[in-house]
Design goal:
The complex is a heterotrimer of chains A (about 325), B (about 300) and C (about 675). Chain A has helices at about 1-10, 10-25, 35-40, 50-60, 65-75, 90-125, 130-145, 145-160, 175-210, 215-220, 225-250, 255-265, 270-280, 280-310, 310-315. Chain A has about 325 residues and is mainly α. The model of chain A has no long low-confidence stretch (mean pLDDT about 80). Chain B is built from 14 helices and 2 strands; from the N terminus they run αααααααββααααααα. In chain B, α7 (about 145-155) crosses α8 (about 165-195) and α8 (about 165-195) packs antiparallel against α11. In chain C, β1 (about 5-20) and β2 (about 20-35) form a beta hairpin. Chain C has an 8-stranded mixed beta sheet with strand order 7-8-9-3-10-11-13-12, sandwiched between helices. An 8-stranded mixed beta sheet of chain C has the order 19-20-21-16-22-23-25-24, sandwiched between helices. Chain C is globular and about 75 Å long. Chain C is built from 21 helices and 25 strands. The chains are: A mainly alpha (about 325), B mainly alpha (about 300), C alpha/beta (about 675). The interface of B and C includes residues 2, 9, 21 and 197 of B.
């Protein structure tokens, strides 16, 4: 297990390096010039000289390989350069926002698991019943309904019930957990519906698959209690693919956050991401993409290790 | 159950054969939910194609008297689904929006899946270093959420509209589908390559081209079709999200996502129809494709993992 | 017999409600098993034998299966209407079950110990310590070394044979009265099968446990069973003591079944008896006697259903046939006539059609080991093999799985590029380039009739394709005529050309595979396990077809198979392989009559003969241990790790093939010691 863990952790480094290189070069293709957009936004007539000066100041007129070199040596120190728009340090900018998004992600994962496990299990164990049909339609719906629209409906619901909208995401969970949770539960729900549907569907199909396996029949032939057959022999095996899905969806949550944060006007990294695209802020975009990829790679690492803990076939791999 | 001849044989047949002789009627009978999906999809397509004849209003006709800003716009006989801030008829805008959603959905899913399928099959055939490199690249692409990839593409490609179609949006939505299709099709092709009938074709001295086109490709069409249907739904969802964020299609093209974009907070209370109906349209469209896609998979290849 | 039977089944009936109709998979089945008795239920796939077993244990899915019976008495208690919980208390405690697939029957994420102690804890309420020491005892009993260590391991760390031993240990854990074994050795190699069956029989004898063994292998039945039930199309057609069933079979189906199996103990020559046609579709079974459509003795009377009747009082031999006396008297002659006997063709040994010299096929294998480093090894799947095949000759290639026999075939066909050695076809050298020129002369038939035909093409398209591509027949009409001829030649009908493969049965598909191989008029066909996926009666049809075609067209076969009896029946010459090496080569009758190599002997001993008298009388050498890893074969003679006659010298060098007399070669330095 230890050897496996070490090997698995070492694999992270080349992956991240490849992402870093790829992101850098792909984004240099972006047309449009941030300097022009920025200066134009400040108003007045801009001369070519001013643009050139600004570019020099921001290091944008260096040859691309020089820029690449600076970027690569900055990486190990966590230096992602400065935002071309606000001129703040990119790492700091991301770090100041990531907490909120992370909290949202954790919260919606908890919600999703809490909703998905009973739904998926019931749906599988009572396959073909009306309950199963209802759950299946609800969960297919979860994948069809756009999460931003679901968020809007939630806002409408809050407005209709309470008359006004809580100021979202302004209070840290460490200062006042109760208020914070009350504020965050709505966006978490809006992301969580899709999330729980995906997990519930996966759980249902893997339980059904596992229950038709030969070793379940063996367990029954041993005269083991049906409850134990399902929980000990069935669930543990069905959990394997489900854990993967939970992890992957968690890693991909940023996708959901991009729109949800816009709906609820939350200052997380999803919103920052959209802003950086609209403003052509290359450095910031680059930093954000790297953050997403790192998140994905780390979550994948955790899934693999969890998998190894659950599945002896991987743990004992040569 | 292994000894029950009938079911055993049925299972085996499902494994190795495709429904060459199964009819549409069988599909309707065995997959009622999927058939519901088809009916909904066809209705939407008809509405989109004959939008001029079906829609009660021109989607761009502005009528400030009917705007919620002036206290109007609630669903009525004239405007069954109400009117938006400019007093434009929502039903008509939804019908025209179906054009955008379906055309972008179909085109991007088709291009994404086709390119992915080509990459996947070639990777399986060439094997060795090429295959390894392609696989690593696919892994890399798959470490980004679809919408993030799409937004990056939007950032990289300049906006371009050809014949009223937003090409950059289609490209942005198609690209994230490529790695996923490539991976699924590659594993399918790898499985087919080792089957005895391909060996038989090789011992008969057939050319590689013949083996690929006659013996391998026809046997990976089922997953390809399943993937396309699944991705059309996702593409419609993606288009709506991008347009909502202001990164997708832009005015005056009617789009469901765009209709939800920039809705004034006041309207949450005063004009809920402006929010409810466009979202419902997206949901129903995606729902239909998901229903159909799920049933298609159960029917063609129940073991396919997407 | 005053004691009541342990299991008494009366009129058991099982129906499956499926999407497209109802299937009665078991129809009015009655039988009894006494304490300590060994009952075999035999029949071809789909006859309802496994369903019978599962329905006694009530392990069929309740959603689709409906079980009815007058009664099923287990130790005097009727268990038909027991509640699920009462039934649960019996399962694993008083009757247990061993399944066919050892690879999937154990839970992959739980330790062996956990799975073995489960019934002990559930039924006997043992403490953890008690159950652990009992588990160690059980593993010892089923012959698993180092039981303490093994308890903490997981199923994937066990081989197939070892897993089946674990299944037996689980089945016997609570010392039940009855064990139901559903094809327990079908997935295993013949030497492992012998180990497992001996073990099962031994333990059950010692503990007085009754066994119901479901199998299609008549040899296994002959070796062990006290009583036999023969099932056909959901019904029992004949039942009785093993000596009666094998000695005086009196149902035409039983006779056909016994006669269609090739026998190792019979001289070559003569066609196999074949039961024509296919078993009926149970969705719409024929009325009256279900065997009527295939029965050579069928008459009008057979339109009504025959009852199971005792042949003579007190003998406990029952047959469901109106003409059982007649059938008994005529025996095999109802299937075979004198014209089915034929003279063996003398093979002219002047110019070999295929000549193999020093063939090597090595595969590089690499797997990760620790720290990003990878270890690579070489599997010598085929290591220095030489033989000739003459026109019109059948050369059999036998060995257990993993011995490299399939790799030999693939290397000859250049489906894998051989690593070394020399191949000659009609005295011309074969290499990657020249093989293209002789492709048409060298064809192949595969094992799996389901995946050897492209599901997207019709039978006609499949057969026409080579004719078209190689421009043998350019005219459409001529091609169509050829296809009709080919279909007729392999016993199919020309109208089948428009069918897709999934519309044919397994046997019919295999015939199409043969037709495809024939359409290029080849000189040699590599047959890779062509009958091992088929039922006995269909297997006999295909073997007869292959033999007829050889006599008619003079084709040579390289016949690769693991079934020793089939190889003996069809081959002129036999090659025995073990771990990539040839152990023995010789004429079929010589190899089977006077085997020289200890491995050949053990292999022949392990394969049971479907005749209780002969089978129980013979002395057997049972091989110990399992096939070593091909990555790390034993030093010296590859067989040395399992050989009963091994000496120090065996581990020093790999023995050469020595010619004993007239082309009978064996690779062993202790041939005399082996005698």
């Amino acid at each position: 297990m230890l050897a496996y863990t070490i090997r698995r952790i070492l694999l992270v480094i080349p992956t991240l390096l490849a992402v870093a290189v790829l992101v850098f070069f792909v984004l240099r293709v972006v047309p449009g010039d941030i300097v022009e957009i920025k200066l134009a936004a400040e108003g007045g007539i801009i001369s070519a000289e001013e643009i050139q000066k600004e570019k020099e100041r921001l290091g944008l007129d260096d040859p691309i390989m020089v820029q690449f070199y600076k970027y690569m040596i900055g990486l190990p120190r966590g230096d992602l350069g400065i935002s071309l728009w606000t001129e703040n340090n990119v790492s700091e900018e991301i770090m100041s926002r990531i907490g909120l998004s992370f909290e949202l992600a954790i919260l919606s994962t908890i919600l999703a698991v809490l909703i998905a496990f009973p739904l998926g299990t019931i749906s599988a164990l009572y396959r073909g019943s009306i309950l199963d049909y209802v759950i299946r339609i609800i969960t297919i719906g979860g994948i069809a309904v756009p999460s931003f629209w679901f968020g809007m409906l939630l806002i409408m619901l809050i407005l209709a019930t309470f008359g006004n909208l809580p100021p979202l995401g302004t209070i840290s969970i460490f200062d006042d957990p109760k208020t914070n949770l009350y504020q965050m539960i709505w966006p978490a729900l809006s992301v969580g519906y899709r999330y729980s549907s995906v997990v519930a569907r996966m759980l249902r199909s893997s339980i059904l698959e596992v229950l038709s396996e030969d070793y379940i029949r063996t367990a029954r032939a041993k005269g083991v209690f049906e409850r134990i057959v399902i929980v000990k022999h069935g669930m543990r095996n069905a959990l394997l693919p489900t854990v993967t899905v939970i992890g992957l969806e968690f890693a991909f949550l940023l996708g959901g956050l991009v729109v949800t944060e816009s709906v609820f006007n939350l200052n997380g990294i999803g919103k920052l991401f959209v802003d950086s695209v609209v403003r052509n802020d290359l450095n910031l975009l680059q930093g954000l993409v790297l953050t997403v990829a790192t998140g994905f790679v780390l979550v994948n690492l955790i899934i693999d290790l969890l998998y190894a803990a659950l599945d002896p076939r991987i743990r004992y791999q040569k | 159950m292994s000894d029950l001849g009938v079911t055993k044989d049925d299972n085996i047949e499902k494994d190795v054969t495709k429904p060459s002789r199964r009819t549409l009627l069988d599909f309707v009978r065995q997959q009622p939910l999927g058939s519901l999906g088809i009916v909904l999809i066809i209705t939407m397509m008809l509405a989109a194609i004959f939008a001029q004849h079906v829609a009660p209003f021109n989607p761009e006709d502005v009528d400030f008297e009917a705007s919620p800003a002036f206290g109007g716009g609630a669903p009525s006989l004239a405007h069954p689904l109400g009117a938006d801030a400019f007093g434009r008829d929502i039903l008509s805008r939804l019908i025209y929006g179906a054009r955008t959603a379906l055309s972008i959905g179909f085109l991007s899913a088709f291009f994404g899946c086709s390119i992915g399928a080509i990459i996947g099959t070639s990777s399986a055939f060439f094997g060795g270093k090429v295959d390894l490199l392609v696989q690593r690249f696919i892994d890399l692409m798959l470490s980004f959420p679809i919408i993030v990839l799409a937004i990056i593409v939007i950032a990289v490609f300049p906006k371009s509209v050809v014949l009223g179609v937003d090409v950059n949006v289609i490209v942005a939505i198609a690209i994230p589908f490529i790695p996923k299709t490539a991976r699924v099709i590659r594993s399918q092709a790898l499985a087919v390559v080792t089957l005895p009938y391909v060996d038989a074709a090789r011992t008969n001295g057939f050319s590689s081209t013949r083996i690929i086109f006659r013996h391998i490709l026809p046997n990976v069409t089922a997953p390809f079709l399943i993937l396309i249907t699944a991705f059309i739904g996702q593409a419609i969802l993606l288009e709506a999200s991008l347009s909502y964020l202001g990164l997708g299609v832009v005015e005056p093209t009617p789009s469901w996502g765009l209709m939800l974009s920039g809705v004034n907070t006041d309207y949450y209370r005063t004009a809920p129809w402006m929010i409810i109906f466009p979202g419902l349209a997206v949901s129903i469209a995606v729902f239909s494709f998901n229903l159909f896609g799920d049933s298609l998979r159960d029917w063609l290849d129940p073991k396919l993992k997407l | 017999m005053s004691q009541p039977p342990l299991l008494d089944v009366r009129n058991l009936q099982v129906e499956f409600k499926l999407k497209n109709g109802t299937v009665r998979a078991v129809d009015n089945v009655s039988f009894q098993v006494n304490r300590g008795e060994f009952l075999s239920i035999v029949g071809e796939s789909g006859c309802g034998k496994s369903v019978t077993a599962l329905s006694i244990m009530k392990l069929l899915p309740k959603r689709v299966a409906e079980i009815k019976a007058d009664y099923v008495k287990f130790d005097g208690q009727d268990i038909t209407n027991l509640s699920e919980n009462e039934m649960r208390k019996i399962r694993g405690r008083r009757m247990s079950m061993i399944f066919q697939e050892p690879m999937t029957s154990l839970n992959p994420v739980l330790t062996i110990g956990d799975q073995l102690t489960e019934p002990l804890i559930t039924h006997l309420e043992m403490s953890e310590e008690e159950s652990n020491s009992r588990a160690i005892e059980l593993l010892n009993m089923v012959g698993i070394p180092e039981p303490e260590k093994r308890l903490t391991q997981y199923p994937h760390q066990f081989s197939g044979g070892m897993r089946q031993r674990v299944m037996i240990a689980i089945g016997l854990a609570c010392e039940p009265d009855l064990i139901i074994a559903d094809e327990p050795t079908t997935a295993l190699d013949v030497t492992i099968q012998a180990q497992i069956l001996e073990l099962l029989k031994d333990i059950c004898n010692r503990l007085g446990v009754a066994i119901i063994m479901i199998t299609h292998n008549l040899g296994v039945v002959a070796a062990y069973a006290d009583k036999v039930n023969v099932m056909y199309a959901a019904r029992i057609v004949e039942k009785g003591g093993a000596p009666e069933i094998f000695g005086k079979p009196s149902h035409p189906y039983t006779i056909g079944l016994l006669r269609s199996v090739p026998r190792m103990d019979k001289k070559r020559g003569g066609r196999l008896a074949t039961i024509e046609g296919l078993p009926p579709n149970l969705m719409a079974p024929p009325s009256g006697c279900r065997f009527k459509p295939r029965c050579p003795m069928a008459a009008d009377t057979c339109d009504s259903s025959p009852e199971l009747k005792e042949r003579s009082k007190g003998k406990n031999h029952f047959t469901a046939c109106f003409y059982s006396d007649d059938a008994n008297k005529k025996g095999a002659s109802i299937y075979v006539s004198d014209k089915d006997k034929f003279k063996l063709i003398k093979v002219k040994k002047d110019k070999p059609v295929l000549s193999v010299r020093g063939l090597k096929q090595h595969f590089g294998v690499s797997f990760r080991s620790g720290w990003l480093s990878s270890v690579s090894g070489t599997v010598k799947a085929v290591d220095d093999i030489s033989f000739d095949v003459y026109p019109g000759e059948t050369v059999g290639l036998v060995g257990e799985s993993g011995c490299g026999k399939t790799s030999v075939g693939r290397a000859i066909l250049h489906l894998n590029l051989p690593t070394g050695g020399e191949l000659k076809f009609n005295e011309k050298e074969l290499n990657q380039k020249s093989v293209a020129l002789v492709r048409q002369d060298m064809q192949v038939i595969f094992q799996d009739p389901f995946s050897s035909l492209n599901p997207r093409m019709t039978i006609g398209q499949i057969l026409e394709e080579p004719l078209k591509v190689h421009k043998i027949e350019t005219e459409e009409d001529a091609r169509s005529k050829r296809v009709s001829e080919l279909l007729t030649k392999v016993g199919l009908y020309p109208y089948m050309r428009d069918r897709y493969p999934h519309e044919l049965s397994g046997g019919q598909r295999q015939r199409v595979g043969i037709a495809r191989a024939l359409c290029m008029e080849p000189k040699i066909i590599i047959c890779d396990e062509p009958v091992s996926a088929l039922d006995v009666s269909v297997q006999a049809q295909i073997i007869n077809l292959l033999e007829d075609l050889q006599r008619e067209l003079g084709i040579a076969y390289l016949f690769i198979a693991h079934d020793l009896a089939v190889v003996k029946h069809i081959s002129h010459k036999v090659i025995v392989m073990y771990l990539g090496k040839v152990m023995e080569i010789g004429d079929s009758d010589t190899i089977y009559g006077e085997p020289k190599h200890p491995y050949t002997k053990a292999l022949l001993d392990a394969a049971p003969i479907p005749d209780p008298k002969k089978e129980r009388g013979r002395e057997k050498i049972i091989l110990k241990g399992e096939l070593p890893s091909p990555l790390n074969p034993p030093k010296g003679c590859v067989f040395s790790s399992r050989c009963n006659f091994v000496t120090e010298d065996c581990r020093k060098a790999s023995p050469e093939l020595v010619d004993f007399d007239n082309n009978h070669l064996a690779a062993c330095i202790n041939i005399d010691g082996g005698k």
